[in-house]
Amino acid sequence: MTPYANFGAPNHRTGETLRPFYKNLCFVSVLIAFIVGLMLGIFLPFVYSKNASNSTDIVTIINDTSEIRTVFLSNSFSAKNRSDINKYPTVSFVENLKAGEEANYGKLIQNGIYWGEDVETSLPEGYREKKHTIWRDYVNKAVAVKLENGCGRMQNRMVIFQDGLKGCVRYRQNTDQIQGELFSFYLAQILKLPNLAPSTVSIVDLKSPLWSNLRNEIAAAQWNSNRAIVLTQYISNLGAASIPDVFRPIERHLNKFDVLNMTKNEIIEKEDLTKTLTELAQWSDLIIFDYLTANLDRIVNNLYNYQWNANIMDAPAHNLAKKSDSDLLLFLDNESGLLHGYRLLKKYEVYHSVLLENLCIFRKKTADIIKDLKTKRNIGKLLRDTFEQQNSEIVKDILPTLPDKSVKVLNERIERVYQQIVKCESIYANDNST
Asked: pTM to 2 decimals?
């Protein structure tokens, strides 16, 4: 038997020494084994990471901006004609109106993208300029007699006035949160949205009639003197408000065909249909308002947390309430708007835009104001003029106006809403085909 322990040893059978060829063969074998092992070490982790990136793990998907729109709201408005739109399996359309139904549909939707007369006349009155003026005048003369816990988190308090009326005080250490609350309120006034409770600014001054009776309560609340607060009228009879089905991931969109399908649903009573559409009309305003302000504390809160809790879309919307006696949606807690929310756009913009991109029915009054603001680019002047006109010199000395960089971002977002309206007009505006 030929010994293989030592390739340089003599062959006991032949007496010859093994040739150098076997030495080279050994070296080549070792080198090949090393290269193969190295390649496996590099290639296998690459394959694994590729497979992992293609997994359906919701956390992985959420971290990819290009995929997040698919998770929440697949954009069904990129199609330019009816045949393209019908390619989307999540969209179910009713094509033909029966005799007499066209007139009724026309009262629900105007020109294919605006809420019609029946919906507009059913909207709750809400809080308009006259009520805001009454509240400002009241607070300027009011005397507070009690301060107690309530009206939300942290250092917020409920204030009770001498005549028994109540208000909610928003106190924050960060001035920009007070600015965000106030200027979001002013923006809603400019947009003529009736969904924000009357609010005004006051300064914590123990010498003023408003606060002089509350020294002990203010000390217990750890409020500092000469700080700006937002004082909002207390609204009773509020209940939770849920995200409508059409804005949840299963449905994904709201356009004129969705409304038409609702009219065809024999299960829905006419009264319930009107109520549903009235709420959706308010949601169309809410989506625009929250996009413009980049509000983090409402629907974006639900969308962001969806990656960890798929059931959160079934939970009540954060900082949104409904008045039980009028079905008015109340847009609460807007302190992240216009400043703090703008600083975090890089992280949250995909959540802000996902609802806007799939909304194609608007209140015409709101759309007309957006178009006017886009053309004139005067939103900064309007907001600052409102601040100047509605506040005392003391308030203006303590609370800064809206900074230029926020005005710049707001103009960009007005432009984006305008583009969405124009896009919807190009797709859904009536062309005598429905």
From this structure: 0.79
